[in-house]
Amino acid sequence: MTNTLLQIENLDVRFKGARNVHAINDLSLELKQGETLALLGESGSGKSVTLKTLLRLLPEKRTDLGGRIRFDGTDIMTLSGRALRSYRGGDVSMVFQDPGLALDPVYTIGQQIAETVMRHKGISRADAMEVALDMLHRVRIPSAERRMKNYPHELSGGMRQRVMIALALACRPRLLLADEPTTALDATVQIQILLLMRELQREFGMGVIFVTHDIGVAVEISERIAVMYAGQIIEEGTTHEVIRNPQHPYTQGLLAANLHDVARGTRLDAIPGSPPALETRPDACPFAPRCPLVMDACRQALPPTQRPGPRRRVACLRAGEPIPA
Amino acid sequence: MLSYFLRRLILVLPVAFGVSVVCFALVQIAPGDPLTAIMPVDATAEQQAAMRAAYGLDKPLPVQYLIWIGNLLQGEMGRSIASGRPVADEVFGAVGNSLLLAAAAAVIAFPIGTFLGFLAGYFRDTILDRLITALSITGVSVPNYWLGIVLVIIFSVNLGWLPSMGAGPGGSQDWQWDWAHMRHLVLPAVTLAVVPIGIVARTVRALAGDILSMDFVTALYAKGLSRGDVLRHVARNAAATALSVMGLQLGYLLGGSILIETVFNWPGSGFLLSNAIFQRDLPLLQGTILILAMFFVGMNLIVDVAQAAIDPRIKRS
What we know:
The structure holds 2 protein chains of 2 kinds. Chain A is 33% helix and 24% strand. Chain A has helices spanning 47-54, 81-87, 99-102, 109-121, 125-138, 144-147, 157-169, 187-204, 215-221, 239-244, 249-256, 296-300; strands spanning 4-15, 21-32, 36-40, 63-71, 74-75, 92-95, 175-179, 207-212, 224-229, 232-238, 305-309, 312-315. In chain A, strand 11 (305-309) and strand 12 (312-315) form a beta hairpin. Chain A starts with a strand and ends in a 10-residue tail after the last strand. Chain B is mainly α. The chains are: A alpha/beta, B mainly alpha.
């Protein structure tokens, strides 16, 4: 138990408004110290919402939260004021999808990194600038001294994401949340950023939750994979287990939809249909309408979670059965 | 920064030239003969021709323009046909008074407008936002000369707290920073401030609302910054655009206060302008319009430079 870093239990997130959305439904997840987990799923499956909930970044008035989140034994749901601010960016920090939008356009990158360090470490501006410069070196930004005085729009997308990572790691957090950090980048730059994040993870030893819709990226970066669908985790295991032996029909479909061994001219194996709208809380398997193995029982009640191994789980009545071609 | 300023300054020259041509041409196009206003009705044709020649009005228009510009460059703006006094004295005295009124209105309007706009933007779609939006739309829509008259009726006629007209006991050229003079400024300045309060509030509301919904604001909270820190970032982001709107408003306050100056008998440029129009006082009219237009051009220059100083995204190189 001592090395559990993050524990999410029965998390519910519901957005209120003109239209209610049950974004996260009964999500549980555990992350150990220094572990790298990929949260895999398509758009609207609740990956980003999960990350934002972990930092309590969702607008409070329009969100109903349920369940428990504990970070290193501290209850996150009840944090407020100074404690919440020191948790955000100090213990847990986040790298956003589009660094062009996530950096303040009218402050230099040096100022932006130093500001975080000053707030969390209570050190002088000059010392914070030193830390910022050191961080820019660590994320391998060439001529870092000069870059310190640059504004975000003067950098390329890849450089901006390096800055974002430097910013996130400047206070040595124990958990890094990465919200599709390579999606907005060019393919060649994506690889560089992934390799950089993997190196830095080893160097700093922090836990990482890496949200992505790209299985290739998940395999590249993570030890474990949790597959999300309709605001729930439907399958979890080590990267090896999930990729070699997918149990949930959705995971199997995702892997089959990969482009690797598709012959030219044949149809892609896409999963038919689209995810549910989640205006009501799912009371049956949310994947049932799209599932090739669907049975009557799937439409009656939520599927029980099966645990075929230690820290291995799958929420499906027909787990492990092959999909007929 | 200095080279940016110099380049902007050079760009001002063609604009200034255009402005001077338009000033000159507009006055020529306007109907009416300036001489009829000052000559006796029974003046003979010879007398009129002599007068015309004395003011140089018998020469072709381009020549008149060149003479006018040549004199301007030497600081000579001619003499008012109506009063016979140098145009420069009349215009600068009046523009000074207008500037005083505009500055007072701006000092009232900009902080209030910014504050209200920020509140409305921060509490978007709440009752407070709707209230402020309704107020600012009302402020922009109410005719301000009517509002001026209403204020005069309330505060001067009924309550007797504030004077209704003029610029103080010493007349138009004798401004002093004491209450006896400044109380004359209150009503016209407040009246004049109502429209820019509304416009600034609307602008800042839209700006603040847009910026608050941007990703980097979430990222700032994710860094662990306090609400105050985040609002400082938002203000810095909004500053450049807000400043340009305020600069334009200051220009409007300076030139667009004709009605207010008339309602309150404020001896400013608007007052001077309307007199010059009615008297067909061409040199005075040209001089006043030109000086006001140059203030506009200068204001824009200042705003451009200030914007570039605040917002790094505005290209300097």
